[in-house]
Amino acid sequence: MPLVEAGDDIAGQIVIALGENNLRLEDNDVLVVAQKVISKAEGRLVYLHQVAPSEEAQRRASETDKDPRLVELILRESVSVVRQERNLLITENKIGIVMANAGIDQSNVESGCALLLPEDPDQSAANLRAALKNELEIDVGIVIADSIGRAWRRGIVGHAIGVAGVEAVIDMRSTHDLYGRELRVTEIAIADEIAAAGTLLMGQAHEGIPVVIVRGFSAFDKATTAKDLIRPKDLDLFR
Q1: In this structure, is residue 235 part of a structural domain?
Q2: Among 3, 37, 81, 144, fewest CB within 10 Å belongs to which?
Q3: What DSSP string runs through 100-160?
Q4: What is the CATH number of the domain that holds 76?
Q5: Is the distance from CB of 170 to CB of 191 less than 8 angstroms?
Q6: CB 56 within 8 A of CB 75
């Protein structure tokens, strides 16, 4: 797919790319779509020279050794700062996800810019799903994937930040294991697992593969959104 700019028709680009790669979508396929192309198409690219840092942003920038303009964007996109360290701000962003720097990224964008997350990734996923259904007359799921860190482990992994037409969390409680024991706490973050599988093929650098097809699922019993993946604050032991 070509590089995406503000206002681009992502569904249209996917349809063209399918034809150029001799691929055809089927009902119940799941498309894993990189967050960056959604953000770029939705005009979420910000030029840092247009950002005026607040007093709080300048103070936190001094404490963390970060660009005050970037810190200002992080604060604007967040509802709270969870932790602050050198060169790092961990925040709860407006979407509700706890992640580094509110998910704002400067990789694979032009110098002097920063890319914000979509304002409502679940709605972005729903819009893309509807557009593809209109163009191709097929019913696919959409997982918008972003790479984020995890509290217990090193490295980044693809996670679902926007979901449509997919069961984001499958509740296995009250089912039984091989020995007949009832499962009491097991829930499977299926959308995150799909996102992680997709980002294996996307890569993290210059690969230029923003969309991956995941095939083999039957219809999902209950389509939910990425918001269902967020652990409630009263059950979050890290806050």
Answers
A1: no
A2: 3
A3: EGGG-B-TTS-TTEEEPPPS-HHHHHHHHHHHHHHHH----EEEEEEEE--SSSSS-EEEE
A4: 3.90.1660.10
A5: no
A6: yes
Q: How many structural domains comprise the chain?
A: 2
Residue 109 lies inside a defined structural domain of this protein: yes
3-state secondary structure of 67: coil
Q: Would you say the pTM of this structure is higher than 0.85?
A: yes
Shared domain for 108 and 200, answered yes or no, is no
Please give the pLDDT value at position 233.
83
Alpha-carbon distance values, 64 to 84, 114, 146, 198 (Å): 7, 18, 24, 33
d(CA 194, CA 218): 14
Rg of the chain over Cα atoms, rounded to whole angstroms, equals 19
The rounded average pLDDT for each run of 10 residues, N- to C-terminus, in the chain (239 residues) is: 92 95 94 96 96 97 96 97 92 94 89 95 97 95 93 90 94 84 86 95 78 90 89 80
Place of tokens 């009832």: 182
218 and 106, same structural domain? no
Q: How far apart are CA 72 and CA 53, in angstroms?
A: 5
- Among 116, 148, 172, identify where a domain stops: 116
Residue from 45, 44, 71, 39 nearest 57 by CA: 71
Q: What CA–CA distances, in Å, run from 195 to 145, 200, 209?
A: 5, 9, 14
Range of the domain at 212: 1-44+118-230
131 with 198, same domain: the answer is yes
